[in-house]
Amino acid sequence: MKKASLREAYGRTLVELGKENKDIVVLDADLSGSTKTKMFAKEFPERFFNIGIAEQDMMGTAAGLAAAGKIPFASTFAIFATGRAWEQIRQSIAYAGLNVKIVASHGGITVGDDGGSHQAIEDVGLMRILPNMTVIVPADAIEMEQVIRTIAKYKGPVYVRGARIDFPVIYDDKDYHFQIGKGSILREGRDITLIAMGLMVHHALEAASILSLEGIECRVVNMSSIKPIDRDLIIDSAQKTELIVTIEEHLITNGLGSAVCEVVCEECPVPVKRLGIKDRFGISGKPDKLLSYFHLTPQDIVEEVKKVLQRKPRLVRAVG
Amino acid sequence: MFEQGVKDIQKLKKIAKEIRKDILLMLNKAGSGHTGGSLSAVELLTALFFAKMKHDPKNLTWKGRDHFILSKGHAAPLLYAILAKCGYFKHEELFELRQLGSRLQGHPDCKLTPGIEVPTGSLGQGLSMANGIAMALRLDELSGRVYVLLGDGEVQEGQVWEAAMTAAHYKLDNVCAILDNNRLQIDGWVEEVKNIEPLAAKWEAFGWNVKEINGHDFRQILEALNEVELVKGKPSIIIAHTVKGKGVSFFENKAKYHGVAPTNDELELALKELEEGIK
Question: Which of A208, B73, B91, B231 has the greatest number of C-beta atoms within 10 Å?
């Protein structure tokens, strides 16, 4: 299976955007080698600002650049971007709706060995709660590139969650067009809908293939636009499959699962099972071992889907 | 139309007196707000907006303008009084301060108020934003300067020092910070709450050009503003020694009036004092 780096895609796209638009500026907080903003720094040193290990100042500086008409992309690890500098993002960026793009690497537990201090499992929630903020979690490198191009044209604050590890490639770059506020159906199925974000989109697809062999057909949705979320697609899924499982490499509180539940509860109540990390911090380990430890492998999804299908009376009768 | 580039100090003093009256009137009408820290910086902002800065109330996005950031956002009544006098909005709007539906929020909101460039109010964030604007001006080869007013208590916030390092590292000589050193914060004397001295030595050690003045003396303020503009290769800070509550005897040097508006009785006495001068 082909894999590609979201970080490389980000760095490469920044360079391309930098050539197209001289108002694109980039900031980093001493992690430009990791976030790949170094690629932009090399090409456009005068438009790159390393703020050092000072995330709060980085967000404020980005706000100032945006206020003066620039399109700043500010990058660091997800936990430092959203946690360390949360109130700076609230006051200096989101409050005024300033045009700052916060693109973080190292979301989720697949950060791996560095452990819980460095694994952002609450970042999507921290950003989703802010008025004016748009929140995007790309599912692969192709989508990352499209997201970066899209948000460069969109006016307003955006948070994009990337990852340390390479993700399996899901999209063909010719056929896919990312849109803010739109999810995409990657596989159709009548029995249940799996709504996922980030790496979990691929795991959901794998799980759907396994379940299909057993006669269970899953609709699989990539909900990369967490905010604004694709309400229509969630409602359509709830109506058509009457059962939803959400899967996220994030706490199940205030992330994708919560966002989906908010829509389902208000618009079309059906059972929703949220898979993700449950009220605990991450730990050190290799990414694949951690995914097993936190029950986020395709096989875990398969088992959860079978359990949750028992909550759907008609199907149980049909299978029985 | 307001007069820019005022050189006559008597004229500036007259404007400052009117600004003080407006501050007291609007705070009294609002029934809440920050009196002491608004009054301490009246001369500083009067000098900036009426004598020093290039700005055009009729053309908010004029590229040639200088920029001002009120990092100590709680002094919003002062900034609003100044902006109204410059003609950014009508004078009567001042008396809508802090009311539901008003463009004059409790702390500066650039989405609503003409003449305000960035949102402030949560302390410690204005200098970072000033740096960002200064970087953009440099990239665009614009000659505008960025002025940012800091409180003295405010520099207890760590982000101020992160930003101080950034401005020095990037040699942002188009940034001019002004520190309203009125020596009081909500809980009492800054020195007793948490000492920030030696202030000048700290900023110098962070790579800044430092100038200390009496922040109520127009001659000193204008000289300092002109002098620091000539310093190249490093940012400048003017440490302005001021009196909290300046101009009203019973507000002066009182921590209590940090965040309390004048009552009707206090307003009457205060306006009288401003007219006749403190005896």
Answer: B73
Q: What's the Cα-to-Cα distance from A74 to each of A42, A97, A313, rounded to whole Å?
A: 16, 15, 49
d(CA B21, CA B148): 24
Instruction: Report the CATH number that the domain containing residue B142 is assigned in CATH.
Output: 3.40.50.970
Residues A214 and A87 in one domain: no
B128 closest CB neighbour out of A64, A72, A96:
A64
**Tokens standing for A283?**
């730990």
Dig out the tokens for A132 from the structure.
Answer: 């004016």
For A283-301, how does the pLDDT look when each residue is reduced to its tens digit (9 = 90+)?
Answer: 999 999 999 999 999 999 9
Report if residue A83 sits inside a domain.
yes
pLDDT digits (tens, 9 = 90+) for B96-127: 999 999 999 999 999 999 999 999 999 999 99
- How far is residue A139's CA from residue A295's CA, in Å, rounded to a whole number? 19
Whether A313 shows a pLDDT value over 70: the answer reads no
Other Cβ atoms closer than 10 A to B230: 9
Gap between the Cα atoms of B70 and B109, Å rounded: 11
Number of C-beta neighbours around residue B256 at 10 A: 14
Supply the range of the domain harboring residue B214.
9-276
Instruction: Find, in chain B, the residue whose alpha carbon is nearest to that of A51.
Output: B166
Q: A65 at the B interface (CB within 8 A)?
A: yes
Task: Write the DSSP symbol of residue A73.
Answer: E
Residue A314 has pLDDT above 90, yes or no: no
Q: Which two tokens stand for residue B252?
A: 């002066």
**Could you give the percent of chain B with pLDDT greater than 90?**
95
Residue A267 belongs to a domain: yes
Whose structure tokens read 């100090």?
A: B9
* H helix or E strand, kind and range, residue A159: strand A158-161
pLDDT higher than 80, residue A316 = no
Helix axes A231-241 and A256-267, enclosed angle (nearest 10): 70
Question: Are A107 and A231 contained in the same domain?
Answer: no
Residue B3 included in any domain: no
Nearest to A51 among B67, B134, B166 (CB): B166
Q: Tell me which residue has tokens 């019973």.
A: B250
Here the ipTM equals 0.97
pLDDT in tens, B17-42: 999 999 999 999 999 999 999 999 99
The answer to whether residue B1 is domain-embedded is no
Taking CB atoms and an 8 Å limit, are A88 and B119 in contact across chains?
A: no
Residue B3: its pLDDT value, please? 76
| Contact between chains at B165 and A54 (C-beta distance less than 8 A) | yes
